[in-house]
Amino acid sequence: MRFTHQVFTIFILYFLQEISEVQCQEFNDSLNFYSTGKEVRDQIQVTLTKLLTSYNRRIRPNFGGPPCKVIMNLLINSMGPVDEKSQSYLVDAYFRQAWVDQRLSFNATSSVTELPLNWQILNKIWKPDTYFINGKKSKMHKITVPNRFLRISPDGLVSFSQRLTIHAQCLMELKKFPFDSQECPLHIGSYGYTADEVLYDWKDNALEISTLAKATMTQFNLMKWISQAETSITNRKIAAGFRNDSIASINFSFKRQYGFFLLQIYTPMFIIVMCSWVAFWIVKTDAPSRVSLGVASSLSVTKIGFAGKGKPNVEYPTALDIFIIICFMTVFLSLVEYALINYISVFISRYKAREKKELLARTKFGKLLSKRQKRHLLKQKDMMKTISQLTIENNPSDDENVKTKSAGTMTDNTPLKGVHFKASTLEVSKIAQRASDLIFKFCETIERFLTLAITFISPKPVSQMYIYTHTEEALEKIDSLARKLFPLTFIFIMFSYILLYFYIL
Q1: Are 331 and 299 spatial neighbours (Cβ–Cβ below 8 Å)?
Q2: Residue 239 CB: number of other CB atoms within 10 A?
Q3: Residue 90 Cα distances to 93, 170, 292, 427, angstroms
Q4: CATH number of the domain to which 284 belongs
Q5: CA-CA distance, 323 to 265, in Å (whole number)?
Q6: Tens of pLDDT along 408-420?
Q7: Which of 13, 76, 144, 446 has the most neighbouring CB atoms within 10 Å?
């Protein structure tokens, strides 16, 4: 028992000794850490003091020599939206630039292999005046602090990174909207330096896209991108003429996802067009049903198609505009088809009624004309009889004429009553004959004019048409033809539409 107690005591003492040694080692390490950290701080402070003492941030690296080369890359955090109305797109990215400034090179030590610096040091060193040439309204993130950092390597390589939201302009061709693909560039260059002073280029992995960026694209898919760098003469003028700039570009290829438009516009429009065809199976005498269906279909197409929902404001028709116009014309023509049937039906019924009236008028006019002609002939006969009787009664015999001629006592003033009465009677008969001829010609002229007018107003061929003699059957055939013609024509036009916008253009 005593031996066991001694062994236990020795074990406890040994355990406590081991614990104390570990704690002492940790304490010594902590002292060494603080000592090393202080040395690193002092070394960085001394290094920065030496680097910035005679540093002039207004002068670019390699001043008077070869251009300073700036290497860039982008890590896209999110993209979109791509807005066709404002002809622009948004990119949230980490924009990284790297360049070599020999004035910032230093000797590396075991504890200082790189200088990680606060963003405020940027105010003390030279940095390229990079800007986005086709940018519209970009911004830098400043919450909670400005999102930017700086690294300086011993060989003078300066790595500068910042988080930006880039709002860039993209000129879009929207004739195939919403089945279009867009090429949107991002041009980067120097605002003040020419290509003889600063050159821009991309790293091997010029663009990196996070999974989140691909998920945030709602209407577009990013199909591919192409990075390039070139020097070209731009329209920015200097004293010597137009300047030669170094421009680095990335071209994004977007393809629109048209599922939204299929669900919100194309499918409802198809259904409305097919609903307008139901009118062809409604009885043509049921005017309220057919008219209300046609008007409702036209208003629905106008509301959905021309309301401007999600449509770009461009001066030329897009593929969506063409489709809406096709649907509207189809619905409108289905309404016009019933209007045509109704017009033909009313026209034929009125034509038949007018024809009956004209027939009655012609019959009455013929009877009246025949009565006038009979009266005129009877008057002529009576007048001729009267004239002939008067002529016979007033003519003297040959003996009396001889006696009259031989009578010596007759003077020149003796009145010849018989001869005067004969002359006046002949003149009356001539006037009456002329009056009767004029009346007869006037009646003939009126008859011809009325005949021509009736022929012009109601052309004769109408009464010989099939639609005149079989009106109901003809109208039913028009409806039957429309039931086949409208769907087949619409299907053919849609087939041509798909062929044009998906394969030809």
Answers
A1: no
A2: 5
A3: 10, 10, 47, 111
A4: 1.20.58.390
A5: 10
A6: 444 444 444 444 4
A7: 76
**Together in a domain, 222 and 358:** no
pLDDT of 250 higher than 90? yes
Residue 263 and residue 253 in one domain: no
Q: How far apart are CA 112 and CA 115, in angstroms?
A: 7
Q: 3-state class of 278 per DSSP?
A: helix
Is 108 exposed, middle or buried (CB count within 10 Å of its CB: 0-12, 13-18, 19+)?
Answer: middle
Helix (H) or strand (E) holding 166: strand 157-169
Final residue of a domain: which of 231, 257, 283? 257
Q: Does one domain contain both 283 and 233?
A: no
DSSP-assigned letters across all residues of 381-447: HHHHHHHHHHHHHHPPPHHHHHHHHH-SS--TTS--HHHHHHHHHHHHHHHHHHHHHHHHHHHHHHH
Number of folded domains in the chain?
Answer: 2
The C-alpha angle 261, 266, 268, rounded to 5 degrees, equals 115
Task: DSSP for 432-500, please give it.
Answer: HHHHHHHHHHHHHHHHHHHHHHHHHHS-GGGGGSHHHHSHHHHHHHHHHHHHHHHHHHHHHHHHHHHHI
Q: Is the pTM of this model over 0.85?
A: no
Question: What is the rounded distance in angstroms from the CA atom of residue 152 to the CA atom of residue 121?
Answer: 11
Name the residue type at position 280: F
**Domain contains 452:** yes
Which residues on neighbouring strands pair with residue 61, listed in sequence order? none
Which three-class secondary structure state does DSSP give residue 256? strand
* Whether residue 319 is found in the same domain as residue 210: no
Instruction: Give the separation between CA 427 and CA 440, rounded to whole angstroms.
Output: 20
Report whether the peptide linkage leading into residue 363 is cis, meaning its omega lies within 30 degrees of zero. Answer: no
Residue 92 lies inside a defined structural domain of this protein: yes
Nearest to 67 by CA among 245, 221, 324: 245
Structure tokens belonging to residue 413:
């003033």
CA dihedral 258, 264, 267, 268 (to 10 degrees): -160
Q: How many CB atoms lie within 10 A of CB 160?
A: 22
pLDDT tens, 383-410?
Answer: 766 766 666 555 554 444 444 444 444 4
Tens of pLDDT along 442-489? 666 666 665 655 555 555 566 666 677 777 888 888 899 999 999 999
Same domain, 366 and 482: yes
- Torsions phi, psi for 180 (to 5 deg): -95, 165
Residue numbers of the domain that contains 324: 259-393+426-505
- CATH number, domain at 175? 2.70.170.10
CA distance 209 to 225: 11
Q: How far is CA 340 from CA 207, 300, 344, in A?
A: 64, 22, 6
3 state SS for 33-96 = HHHHHHHHHHHHHHHHHHHHHCCCCCCCCCCCCCCEEEEEEEEEEEEEEEECCCCEEEEEEEEE
